[in-house]
Amino acid sequence: MTAVVQAEALTKYYGRRRGLEELTLDIQPGEIFGYLGPNGAGKTTTLRLLLDVIRPTRGSVRVLGGAPREPATRARIGYLPGDLVLEGRDRAIDYLRFLGRMRGGVPASRIEALAERFDADLTVPMRKLSKGNKQKVGLIQAFMHEPEFVILDEPTMGLDPLVQQEFLALVREVRASGRTVLMSSHVLAEVQSVSDRVGIVRAGRLVAVENVAALREKAVRRVELHFASPVPPAAFENLPGVRDLRVEGASVRCTIDGRPDALVKAAARFTVVHLVSAEPDLEEIFLTYYSEGEHDDRQKPA
């Protein structure tokens, strides 16, 4: 099955400033790919290159098996820009109907159904819409023609929590139908909840592509154990993957990198009466990649 995105050594410089360098990436049909990084990391540059909004300095990219500049390819894509601008006196519904006609005819019922899901008032002139309502209109136009590939740049910006949850439900439905979503965000929780894989971009470079389940397995966990009686500190020292160890009487607190197997085996020698393990979070993993990258940069000669 042909990859939805095939990028090879994709690079973009703005004068001397690096926007993106040597991006090689495949995104497969039917997956939700989360693209993580803070503002300025290269996320928006990547999306604009995929859409042929800007041209690469070097490298190549194919989307849905074709060149992104081809009209036939663009017609199969839905896009929500991060810098969405909606102005003018036209009502939001008139704007969406116009786009629907341009895209070959989107049923009015489809637009109305999405507006209801997002609790969007489409009777208001676009220039009078709040930031959150503009974002809702942007989401409707991205999904309304049921594209094969949806590209979303910071999609939940300005949305209230209930609408965010409705959006994430829609993304899951798109995946269930076999279609593909690329979601760029710095909001790690939303990416963690729906993505199959994530790419982490730092300073214009892709530093990792990971399966979300594998990331959780690698994640840092904070563990607290309580025993029936005091335990010797030596029983928990120098265990693989265990750090920040604190043994105080009948309690043990530590941080685990990766699997907890060694800690569990050590604890099994005593009577455990209570255990607390904090669920690993992508944010900690994300920050780990960034701190490692900054350390590597400092190691490089000037």
From TrEMBL:
The keyword Transport applies. InterPro entries: AAA+_ATPase (IPR003593), ABC_transporter-like_ATP-bd (IPR003439), ABC_transporter-like_CS (IPR017871), ABC_transporter_ATP-binding (IPR050763), P-loop_NTPase (IPR027417). SUPFAM superfamilies: P-loop containing nucleoside triphosphate hydrolases. GO terms for biological process: response to antibiotic. It is a peripheral membrane protein. Residues 5-228 form the ABC transporter domain. One of its GO terms (molecular function) is ATP hydrolysis activity. It is found in: Cell membrane. GO terms for cellular component: plasma membrane. Belongs to the ABC transporter superfamily. This is ABC transporter.
